[in-house]
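Question thread 4412

I'm putting together a teaching handout and wanted feedback from people who do this every day. The idea is simple: show students a protein as raw sequence, then show them the structure tokens that encode its fold, then repeat with a second protein so they can compare. Below is the first pair exactly as I plan to print it.
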Amino acid sequence: MANSKSAIKRIAIAERNRLRNKVYKSALRTLMKNYFTALESYSSEPTPENMEVVNQSMSLAYSKIDKAIKRNVLHKNNGARKKARLAKAMAKATAS
């Protein structure tokens, strides 16, 4: 257990930051999952409406990744890797 006032404060701050990071990462996983689901439905039935849903979900995921990087929840290379994964999936789905 912490003995000094500053150590107690640091424990509280670390817990607050951990919870904030957890919310961001969870939301990010959800948005990415929604994107892959939309992409899968587009692959099975390539219509302009499905493509619009894919583009919208991709935009939301990219936005959340950029915000997580800006707020130091994710490292910039981690965010770049996630965005590249989304783009690669899009290229694969549209090529076929």
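The second pair follows. I'd like the answer to focus on this one:
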Amino acid sequence: MSSINVFVSIGVLALLIFFHEAGHFIAAKSQGILVSGFSIGFGPSLIKKEYKGVTYSIRAIPLGGFVSFPDDDEASGFSPADPNLLKNRPIFQRLIVISAGVIANLFIAWLVLFFQATFIGIPDKPEQGVLIINVQENEAADVAGLSRGDKILSINGKELGFGQKAVENLVEGIKASPDLSIKLEKESNDIKSIIEIIPKNDLGVGKVGAQLQQNIISNSIKKSSLIDSFDHSNYQFSDLLIRTIKGYQGLFTNFASTSKQLSGPVKIVELGAQLSEQGISGISLFAALVSINLAVLNSLPLPLLDGGQFSLILIEAIRRKPIPQKIQYAFMQSGFLLLVGLSIVLIIRDTSQLAIFKQLANR
């Protein structure tokens, strides 16, 4: 994994955050709503520039971004009754501004998939089994002799099948076998063999330290028809969106197991760097995955997220009067502490799992 791949991953992530905030910004400006700031990141400003009454900034903590409004800034010089303040606009217009970031990310994800299908090509139908695209050093998969490019055809004598179903079958078999020996049929350089692997016990769930994807032999096939591109991008977008939503649903229905799959910024950048090694197709997939995840995550009705603000406005509409400012501030402040605290935990955990830190720890 080269430094170039890491910078590409960081660049894609920053660009997707930019598009999310640009959605809010454009939705507000197009309706004549006053905007005071456009920021990528949180914390102190590293770069700041004011233009036409809006302060644009890049900040020190790259965990998202925000568009700020002069509504609650007493020093802004605007009258609290100004009709162009966001808080004085009708409920429907405010909901448009809040939801525009999610809509922007979903649109960008679909657009990336469509351009990939149109100009790069549509992948062939997957063949039998699962493809190994990355193996973590000293983890169970590495110890068992699996390496990038290997294909897994069966688990304990049972064929995995084709496509995403094959990936799911292998993942389920591994998860259900912590500290248990399982037999995998692998194919490497057209040579088939049976290997034994013992998944690591991670709080009752088996893990082998390998990144998997559908077994697609050739990279892509060109499609000249726009109808083919539309059909493929719509299918892939729907599949990624549904699987992402199901993943977040698991946080509420099976938190103990699903929470271990949460990834922070470090892990996301690492994944992006790995996928970027596959070229423009891998970068496109990473961009679509992260953009959809940003959309679904921000839709959750949690403090500080778009879904939380959306929920507050809906409650206001039902009550037919604004929610007291103290309650809104408490709601948002608790969300900020939760987000920053969770991000710090994930950054520390994910950083400690990087190969370079494991090598240092073993010295």
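Top answer:
Good format. For the second protein you could add a caption like this: The chain has a mean pLDDT of 79. DSSP finds eleven helices and ten strands in the chain.
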